[in-house]
Design goal:
This protein is 45% helix and 18% strand. The protein has helices spanning 12-23, 43-51, 70-80, 99-110, 130-145, 173-176, 189-197, 226-251, 254-260, 264-279, 281-291, and strands spanning 2-8, 30-36, 57-61, 85-88, 94-95, 114-123, 169-172, 203-215.
């Protein structure tokens, strides 16, 4: 029923716990695909040690054994996946034992195309948690207020990523099969995919904190420079304009069409005020200054 995809790159120190959290699931109808992206540590050997213990585990590598990046690595896994649902788990994160069971129950109740859950932080010593505290609880609160019925996010995902990490989401295999993985910013691949699926798909939220998001200095989401954020954000916005405008026009979504026609800085302004409504302008500026170098 579920193919769990774990993209792995030099996270030997965390990978074992990640795999064990999947194998401990109360929902047993899954396969676990560990897709290695050219790791140079002991990740592959560690992952293969679980294959002998549980025949639901498979280890996949790029044919040349080299590093190809997250989009190519997940595509490799999707090509091997046999499940009706695709669940993602980053190789440094964890699931609570009932995670898949609760997601599948919510999927049955709602018929949604994407089911995702709330997140609990798992900070490592010395990690910066300010960005998490200013972002994740706010968007999770928005989803909780939507209730148990399936909902749309096609407009909201243009402003910011409303599903903060791959590790908290699962998607119907048919829904993701039509997506392009050519993300302008690879570390924001999840946002890139959700925005595409949102054009026709529905979402359902599980308020239980079933995902433990490990926060450490080596993760993609740690501090980035201000200029890199602007450069990458502008690149992603141009990508959204290229792939989403035709779908929005076809759907007759005039508000989204008008927004996508705006320059990138307009999205920054809209997101700033979305945060400021919750925390106030001064605190929001302070959060931004803490987030960037």
């Amino acid at each position: 029923m579920v193919s769990v995809l774990v993209a792995s790159y030099n996270y030997e120190r965390y990978l074992g716990d990640t795999i064990r959290s999947v194998l401990a699931q109360t929902w047993g109808d899954f396969e676990l695909l560990v897709i290695d992206d050219g790791s140079r540590d002991g990740s592959v050997e560690l992952a293969r040690s679980f294959v002998a213990q549980d025949d639901r585990v498979r280890v996949i590598r790029h044919p040349d054994g080299k590093n190809h990046g997250l989009p190519a690595t997940l595509l490799l896994g999707l090509g091997e996946a046999r499940g009706r649902w695709i669940a993602f788990l980053e190789s440094d994160d964890l699931w609570e034992p009932t995670c898949l069971e609760q997601r599948m129950e919510r999927a049955r109740e709602t018929g949604a195309d994407i089911v995702f859950n709330a997140i609990r932080p798992l900070p490592m010593p010395g990690a910066d948690t300010g960005w998490f505290e200013s972002y994740v609880p706010r968007v999770m609160k928005e989803h909780e207020q939507r209730g148990k019925e399936p909902f749309s996010l096609h407009a909201e995902l243009l402003v910011e990523n409303k599903i903060p990490t791959f590790s908290c989401a699962m998607v119907k295999a048919d829904s993701i099969s039509t997506c392009t993985f050519e993300a302008p910013v690879p570390r924001w691949l999840d946002w890139w995919l959700w925005a595409q699926i949102a054009q026709d798909g529905s979402f359902a939220f599980l308020p239980e904190k079933c995902t433990l998001w490990r926060i450490h200095s080596g993760s993609f989401n740690h501090k980035i420079s201000f200029f890199r954020y602007l450069r990458d954000g502008s690149s992603l916005w141009r990508g959204f304009q290229r792939i989403l405008l035709p779908a929005c026009k076809q759907r007759g979504a005039t508000r989204e069409v008008s927004f996508l026609a705006c320059p990138f800085w307009m999205r920054l302004v809209v997101r700033f005020w979305a945060i400021a409504r919750e925390e106030g302008p001064i605190r929001t500026i302070h959060r931004i200054l803490q987030r960037i170098k």
